[in-house]
């Protein structure tokens, strides 16, 4: 007898999924309206199930044993802080020790009960990419998390949503596609990144099709803005209702610049490859945490919880992911959470404050902590640049005299721009905005492209420390 094929379309109890993780518009009167106590109970019940899943995985069982935690004593929310955290390095070592997927995910010999699966990767910028398996629930809930955000920002059935992310091993493009196609009744315009469809063509599609919304990184929206300016394309003539983006460490400058250029509101969202879309911003400007799918803890450097509204590094627990389980995953992003409150949009949830940066990308320059991404606002605020920059980090001197240096290479808008005058101004403004002295080099338009790339994640740091 042939072994049965696990069809995707019959692998999920769809009405149950919709009830458990309500997509829009039902979210607003279900999960998005639960009382504090009802939400606590829901989280408690989901967390207990995830703890039971984790206890069966060698990855967690070994860590808990080493930390002196008995799985039988771990029952719910109150015990969560007793469990050890782990970070992406540990996922990578787990992959190396038990290739290819690691001890936190089922090996192919154990796949019979969990198929169909999809493989995605993340974190290719430093070290080996992390391989992550997604079961249908993980894929669809990620779509639902994103659809809640898109809907709150104005997406409606029939809207064309342009997605300049390549549906590759990276996750974002798929998550946007699932959100628009499966959970919004929208029409996904899957143009792929600039590598697949050039920026000029992306703009042409938007004009021809009447794109209503974009799902795009702020960096790429900045590049589209610069290209539009260069070719004399009128962004205000487009039918853009909103831009769904990831603004990262922005003090409002990037948002304003994009919003003015596109004549549409720009919304900041926050997500992770492993746990999905953690928070989305509504039209009232609140970043709502998808509390029925994730618990966000904020800890100080010693692993202790910080008070509400205080920044620390975020530790995530996924409530819907079984393949694999993510219990107390230290994502190493600096974030802060505000307590639950009813928003003007009607949703009741915990609220996320803007991301300050990745702990890993922080550079200590003569005693000052700097996030290279903070250069974005200074560079893009000056019309003599085209917004493109690259932070080159290196060591100078040797022995005790060795110092960390950062040089910001900035593209001038055209070769007509006076490079010396621009450099002088940028030196002064970056020193003031970053709080530390950095060097500046002005380069010609397009010169940084070989380093920054054409992908959806534009590289802004060139780290020469390991080479030296
Ligand atoms: Zn709201």
Walk me through this protein's architecture:
The structure is a single chain. Helices cover 29% and strands 23% of the residues. The protein is an alpha/beta fold. It has a domain of 102 residues: ANL, C-terminal domain (GMP Synthetase, Chain A, domain 3, 2-Layer Sandwich), CATH 3.30.300. The strands form 6 sheets. It has a 5-stranded parallel β-sheet with strand order 4-3-5-6-7. A 5-stranded antiparallel β-sheet has the order 8-9-10-15-14, covered by helices on one side. A hairpin with a 2-residue loop joins strand 17 and strand 18. The model has no long low-confidence stretch (mean pLDDT 91). Bound molecules: zinc ion.
